[in-house]
Amino acid sequence: MTTSPSPVPDDSTSGTAGSGAAGRPDELAAAVAGLADAELDKADRRRLLGRMLVGLRERGVKEVFMPRKAIGWITEAVSDLAPHVPVRSLETLRRHYPGLDDEALAERLIRNAARAAAGVGAVGGGVASVEWVAPPTLLSTPVLLATETVAVVGIELKLIGELHEVYGHPVPGTPTQKAVSLMQSWASHRGMSPMLPGAAAATVLGTATRKQLRDMILKRFGRNLTTLGPLLTGAAVASYLNRKATRRLGDDLRRDLQLKYGKGGHAALPQPPAED
């Protein structure tokens, strides 16, 4: 049995959930942070996915109905969201998961992200399941699938940033530079290269990386079309495939970070003595 980390203040989300339109990238990032909680119940998961649906509507959704433009729409939405993805510092992760060494902590983060992605797939798989938190006009399948894709990629970008924290090499640079590094890692399933100078290595997406990013998003969006199945079947398949894809990403990245930086870069912090 695991304990949800939600009671512990998260220094990565301060200032991101402020007031304003639901479509602001920081508001969408706050929804992603909530969806990334593996212990979130179904009602709250539906509410947060509905919040993302409403927010992404403000980007305009006409292109989502045109297959050739849908991937570009999702890619731009992910690119706008990425600088605001809340990545917890190592200190915060230690508070959330006391007593775990690096490898155990990495495993917990990957497992939780996979469970969270599965939860999004289960909700997205049943279009009618979010009807009470989103206007009926937003419940068309293409819009819901695009929103699910953005949400799961956001959860995975958060995982990538936090795995870099665990292995002692936080993603450097400004929020925009960090976002580029996270998207490059997501597209390639690899960690940042230790041979490249921090911020200078993450300024703009190169042509090859942008194509790789779009190709990966196309693959994910195509996979999410499984949610077109009957309500329960679609939800079950989407949940399984989301879990599998996020788990694979986490495992691939962890192996690459181990090769680059070695295992066990940090020792587990001692747990505080129990109070009488």
Q: Please report the total strand number as a whole number.
A: 0
Average pLDDT reading: 75
- Spans of at least 5 consecutive residues whose pLDDT stays below 50 are 1-22, 127-133, 267-276
Return the string of H and E elements: HHHHHHHHH
Specify Rg, calculated over alpha carbons: 18 Å
The helix content, as a percent range, equals 55-70%
Description of the molecule:
This protein is mainly alpha-helical and 276 residues long. It is built from 9 helices and no strands. The protein has helices spanning 25-35, 42-57, 67-81, 90-96, 102-124, 141-166, 175-188, 207-224, 231-261. Helix 3 packs parallel to helix 6 and helix 6 (141-166) runs parallel beside helix 9 (231-261). The protein starts with 24 loop residues before the first helix and ends in a 15-residue tail after the last helix.
